[in-house]
Write a structure and sequence with these properties.
This protein is mainly α and 217 residues long. It has nine helices and six strands, in the order ααααββαββαααββα.
């Protein structure tokens, strides 16, 4: 081992501005790696083999989609990422792509790519996806544990470089961007007959304010 943490050094002080995204990526890779363990899935009630496989497929597909949509926060002018989570998920998508053998594919039939589709081969999650996840998770963890900021930064920046292919995908993502979802929490109130009433609100800013006001917080 050629690198280590010197007295008074910390993970944050050594890796600096890269630390937040790097750690988010490492944490989510842990989830992707352990998510295939059926014993763990059974804790959450997914004991059936088919159900567990469906959950696993959705987990990997959802992460791949998140990695594709993450390019929204990359600024083509500054060539920088605007959000730690987004950069981390883009890294993970690149890990999936590195698995090869068609594990992740992109397709479209329209010239403007408005029907761009990302797919995961669910039959290769254990043989290709998890294997690639394990390899990169090990690298990130070793570099973090040994304070190897040079190797860690080099790997992270290389994996999160937005290629020409993804610059094209970013144009599609930005063009088809949907309004931010509004989460409006329902409230429970006592009714006149001593029962409990569930009070719901419209999914708008007004509904959100009304929900908050009637919650009496």
């Amino acid at each position: 081992m050629e690198t280590w943490y010197k007295p008074s050094e910390t993970w944050g002080s050594v890796f600096g501005g890269l630390a937040a995204s790097y750690e988010e990526c490492r944490a989510e890779l842990v989830a992707m790696y352990l998510g295939v363990e059926k014993d763990l899935l059974s804790i959450f009630g997914h004991a059936d083999d088919q159900e567990a496989e469906d959950v696993l497929y959705i987990e990997y597909l959802q992460m791949a989609r998140a990695g594709l949509l993450s390019v929204e926060t990359w600024d083509p002018k500054s060539q920088k990422w605007g959000q730690a989570h987004s950069q981390a998920r883009y890294f993970i998508l690149q890990v999936f792509i590195s698995a090869g053998d068609g594990f992740v594919t992109f397709s479209h039939s329209l010239p403007d790519m408005s029907d761009l589709t990302i797919s995961i081969d669910r039959s290769k999650i254990l043989t290709h996806g998890r294997k690639a996840v394990g390899e990169y998770l090990t690298k990130l963890h070793v570099y973090k544990s040994t304070a190897d900021v040079h190797a860690g930064s080099e790997l992270y920046k290389r994996m999160t470089e937005v290629t020409d292919q993804f610059k094209g995908y970013r144009e599609v993502v930005m063009r088809l961007k949907q309004p931010r979802k509004v989460f409006v929490q329902a409230n429970t109130v006592l009714s006149g007959d001593g029962g409990v009433e569930l009070r719901e609100y419209e999914d708008s800013v007004e509904g959100m304010v009304k929900s908050y006001a009637e919650r009496g917080v």
